[in-house]
Amino acid sequence: MNSNSNLGIPKKGLAGLRENWKQDLVSGFLVFLIALPLCLGISMASGFPPVSGTFTAIIGGVLVSFFGGSNLTIKGPAAGLIVIALGAVEELGNGDPLLGYKLTLAVIVIAGLLQIVFGILKSGVLSDFFPSAAVHGMMAAIGIIIIAKQVHVLFGVKPEAKETIGLMAEIPHSFSQMNPEIAIIGIVSLLVLFILPLFKNKYIKMIPAPLLVLLIAIPIGRYFDLEHEHTYLFLDNHEYSIGPKFLVTLPDNLISAVTFPDFSALFTFTSFKYIIMFALVGSLESLLSSKAIDSIDPYKRKSDMNRDLIGVGVGNTLAGLIGGLPMISEIVRSSANINNGGRTWWSNVFHGLFLLIFVAFFPLLIHQIPLTALAAMLIFTGYRLASPKEFFKTYKIGMEQFVIFSVTILITLSTDLLLGIAAGIVVKFLFHFKNGLPAKYMFKPMFTVTTLDDKFTVHVFHSAVFSNYIKLKKSLDSLPRGKSICIDFTNANLIDHTVMENLQHYKSDYEREGGVFIIAGLQEHSSFSNHDLAGRKKKTPIHH
Fold this sequence. Notes:
By secondary structure, the protein is an alpha/beta fold. The protein has helices at residues 13-45, 51-62, 82-93, 97-120, 132-155, 164-169, 171-176, 180-195, 202-205, 209-223, 254-257, 269-296, 305-322, 331-339, 346-361, 363-366, 371-385, 388-397, 399-414, 417-434, 469-477, 497-512; strands spanning 74-76, 230-234, 238-242, 328-330, 446-452, 455-464, 484-488, 492-495, 516-520, 525-527, 536-538. Helix content is 58%, strand content 10%.
């Protein structure tokens, strides 16, 4: 993929369309094949009508692309926001799903406006603030919650519990009471998703896994005649009911699916809580996804994070006004865009147009999709967010990071995302205080910059931790590109893992632009683990 970095950077705007339309059209179509089932599944898991996610992806592709904040990210609904959306619908609706949906739309509109303000205030640096372990813990918790909810759909059983812990406890019961024909479709779909990546054949790897799931699940669903309400005997000892309720239901036309928000409960504590959650978690996920996609862009282009945030905010405001889910820059579809040869943001436009055409003109085909197949895709997504690898990777960085990661997960599962990430930050601070961080330097880094023959040395004093890194990064950003920068930690007592990780990314970006970036002065520090990016503490603290 890196070989492309030596090629000419694709043009922008209409010139980029003329130059790259073939590659972007093909990539946009392949991304659409992945996006369609995920949009439907995420919508239903969020307590929204199935068409809501496609509204969001259409807006994210056809309109938000023109804000030009990023080059290759695909905008649309994300599994990471399912937990917040469903929580809002249930809590605001108080047992009335339709009312909860309309009140949640109002929350999404205001959260979108707040994201626009974030972008105008240049809050794109938000992604550099949160501790890495807390962010990974939040994503792992989201994965666990998705799995806990969707396993029951996979088995064709309606659970009694509403909260995550109860849903997890109820899995054995749902397994014992599963609807066999529904479960067969779901389990086969899940096996396809787990087994397909194991094939090394380049032609097999070209097949989008969600598309293959639909190509298998839809014929099985037709064979079981899910279209018509009926009962059947399984192993001659139990009667099961089956029918259209196990299939996706779309309205006859898109216009009739438009739903307007209800602003009547906007000034309540619950609405305020979910506005903050949508705006903060959505912005954080979107920024982190954009950063990740920039790192694998074959042309090494950089997204304008603030402009991208404004675009996402505008998209969310519009989506909320017509009945759509909230959107982010989505990492799975964006990665597929790069892998399929997408070159400019026109691939995002094409993906949105294909969705619009398909949902507008082929709703009967979408109606053939079994819900259990969508549940399988979401369970697979949840597994990737909360895989054992994520736990092991965090453990290798150090026990402190693993504790922060675990606390974030446990608090999120037992309360909500906002309290979970807050708990992770509190635990991180407790570890920092234990390691000698003075309270007055929590948000205030101390450093000086010296220059000698076009070489810049940044001397860091006291501590460099996640909560004061943004000011340090701003200072680094103010230095000219293509020069030599040395960041010297000789006089620092504490450097945390988040700063080490961020500086490693900064070093890669700076050196890619032709500069030299050196991290020095760590010889007198002991590392919290054997990991290269583990936090470090001065063996003999300096009293400044």
